[in-house]
Amino acid sequence: MSRTARVIWDDALTSYNFGPSHPLAPIRVELTIALARALGVLDEVELTGCAPAGDDELALVHDRGYIEAVKGVSVAGAPDLRAGLGTTDNPAFKGVHEASALIAGASLAAARAVWEGAAEHAVNVAGGLHHAMPAAASGFCVYNDPALAIAWLLEQGARRVAYVDVDVHHGDGVQAVFYDDPRVLTISLHESPRTLFPGTGFPHETGAEGTAVNVALPAGCGDSGWLRAFHAVVPPLLREFDPEILVTQHGCDSHALDPLANLMLSIDGQRTAYAALHELAHETAGGRWIATGGGGYELVQVVPRIWTHLIAELSGHPVDPATPTPEGWRQYVRERTGEAPPLTMTDGRNPEFRDISGGYDPADPIDRAIMATRNAVFPLHGLDPMP
Questions:
Q1: Residue 19 three-state SS
Q2: How confident is the model at residue 1 (pLDDT cuts 50, 70, 90)?
Q3: Which of 14, 123, 161, 210 is most buried as measured by Cβ atoms within 10 A of its Cβ?
Q4: What range does the domain containing 106 cover?
Q5: Contacts of 195 (CB under 8 A, 6+ apart)
């Protein structure tokens, strides 16, 4: 399906590091790239570097006063609580501006490659920092690279950009930036804000002309329910919106093993969602697809495998789930982490779901979540909310 896929990578992307006890450990992306390389996945893509985002690029989303504040923290490593740096979630560290600007630059490089036609698909697995606000760090995120990629695309002349966020946490920063901009459709599928940070992402948050879409799923939702919700909401809205380009955020903290959230997806369910987004990129956006990483805090068992699947999916050469992980990579994991590595690229699940077109059950909390979203936004797009 894909013609050209590009992976934006620089070893310096691992410098985005809040310290040894912080959940967002850079080892997760290091192990991802190592696994993708060991499996030959990187042989199927163009691997290119990137430059840090400049101040003018960062200012497409972030206040210049905030950028200067981050630079000040970067020099001294001292907290600036007005900028949201120096908290438990967002510790201050020397070099924070440079590390954050490089991640932003990687997502901008992905956007540039796709917009200019150098690649059909592009991915920055170190990106997806979707909680950062225009004037404050939030939720482990300093600069909002998905929002910056979208803002850059709009500046180049894009008229309609769709953003789909499958992180377990609401994509609040991206939604906030484009809440009143009908050129950008933001769709976030996440655990209910009643039980998880950041406490936003209710179905009634609909933005300009219904272009903010939120599917708030109950804790405990697994593959079948999540995929049912995805297919009940995302494909019809993307088809109706008719984007010129699709941007996706692939936080994998919806996995059952993730320590910070309460959904129950498997590697296989997440992989199925990535394949569906790939198909939708071709069906609705002419194949133009920009992907980022995101959350994901099971650093060895989950993140490297699922984001290797993501890269493989973008390349058009998906990895068979039954594929063993290479012994060389397993040894690398043992040396770097002291943990036992996963042995295959699957959790052994076969994700299946019932399509909402067969009707819904008002007693089912997942179906209630689906219908709350459809009732809130489908009429604003001229779509019938009923299955």
A1: coil
A2: very low
A3: 123
A4: 5-381
A5: 219, 262
Amino acid letter for position 303 = V
Nearest in space to 128 (alpha carbons), one of 146, 106, 154, 101? 146
Residues whose CB falls within 8 Å of the CB of residue 193, separated by 6 or more in sequence, listed in order: 170, 199, 200, 201, 202, 216
Q: Do the beta carbons of residue 143 and residue 107 sit within 8 Å?
A: no
Q: Where would I find the beta strands (DSSP E) of 101-197?
A: 121-124, 161-165, 184-191
Question: 155 lies in a domain?
Answer: yes
Report, as residue numbers or ranges, the catalytic residues. Answer: 131
Give the mean pLDDT of 44-51.
98
> Is residue 350 scored above 80 in pLDDT?
yes
Residue 386 lies in a domain: no
CATH number at residue 145: 3.40.800.20
Mind listing the pLDDT tens digit for each residue in 151-173?
999 999 999 999 999 999 999 99
Domain count, the chain: 1
- Is residue 387 included in any domain, yes or no? no
Q: Which two tokens stand for residue 334?
A: 């043992």
The span from the CA of 114 to the CA of 120, in Å, is 5
Over residues 171-219, the pLDDT tens digits come to 999 999 999 999 999 999 999 999 999 999 999 999 989 999 999 999 9
Name which of 32, 109, 24 is nearest 309 in CA terms. 32
